[in-house]
Amino acid sequence: MALDLICSLRFFDLRLFGGGREALAIAERLGDLRLCIHAQSLAGGLSALAASRGWAVESAPPSPALGQCWLVASGDPAQDDELVALAERAGVAVFVPRWPERSSVRLPLEVGRAPDSSASSSRNRFQPGRVSLVGAGPGDPELLTLKALARLREAEVLIHDRLVSDEVLALAAPGARRLYVGKARSRHSVPQEGINQALVDWARAGYRVVRLKGGDPFVFGRGGEELECLAEEGIDFEVIPGITAAIGVSAYTGIPLTHRDHAQSVRFITGHLSNGSIDLDWPTLAAPGQTLVFYMGLGSLEVIARQLIEHGMGADTPIALVEQGTTARQRVHVDTLAGIAASIAGLDIAPPTLIVVGGVVSLYRSLSWFERASATSLGWRHGKHPSPLDRAGEA
Ligand SMILES: C[S@@+](CC[C@H](N)C(=O)[O-])C[C@H]1O[C@@H](n2cnc3c(N)ncnc32)[C@H](O)[C@@H]1O
Question: pLDDT tens digits, residue range 349-360?
């Protein structure tokens, strides 16, 4: 029978069998627990981790007399099978990520944090769980889909990014375990592999996992990479789209992405700088009749404006920078390609910020309903007007 021993593993004599990638994936999540690794040789990462944590390494063959809890991850199914069988005969607790149904304990699955007692569940359910990859929208919680809201309310484990607003997080089931794995530009709090592994592990352990991402998970959100990993591991998943920043920002600034007089197409582009430059097809981007929306482009604003002008776009083409779009903190800065850098110099512009370039930006002056509404007492901003989410919460 499976036991929840997350909180008491600290007091166990833990043994990890395996020296490769699978063993490293477990070891990385053990925090400061005491451990002895049994392997003939250790992969580089595991060897470094063992040294830094002061873990013992032994090459002795497994014996039933060793330890009280075995973590089995040799990388070889036949060898894992032998080890699990030996543990079962010896009455030693065992965790084997390959076969959750044969595990008699839960491993501390926490990402980037030490386990604590609240991770323990009263269920002994080892049916694999499911991951819902959910788009949280650009910020305003009322832009969540009904399906996203339903999944948030059912979530047992919520793994979320920096861009998910507090208001959206507040809608999750109160008992849901929250794991923050957010990324800031070039500063990743949990490496992508760690996030992928956490999704696999929590789902394997039988939890309803919601992977919540700002905007839409498939638009510059690495949602595809995470699902590829789940698919490889045979984990069940679904995808619930969200309103991507471009759509939300367009609506809340009154800058339509297309308009018969200005743009017949729209392009979503990453403005992420790599080694100080962006490798984009500038001649195509500078072509007339389209709207350009740059995500992650704040740090490369000057490069973007310069390249577009150099490749033939009018220096007087309007450009908008939209900070924290759709939220009460939304701020919009409009100028021309030639003038934008100077006009925002000295301003403390905070991410997330989206850049919109093209003739449609000229409509901002006449169509920017959101800021105007909030400046009046009409109270269209969330919080002042009764929200459908409030009513749903009363049910
Ligand atoms: C890593 S991308 C994630 C995009 C997200 N998956 C989406 O569909 O909106 C992060 C970038 O999205 C843009 N962004 C996200 N939310 C935003 C918001 N509320 N206001 C302005 N820009 C936003 C910013 O350009 C930010 O740097």
Answer: 988 999 999 999
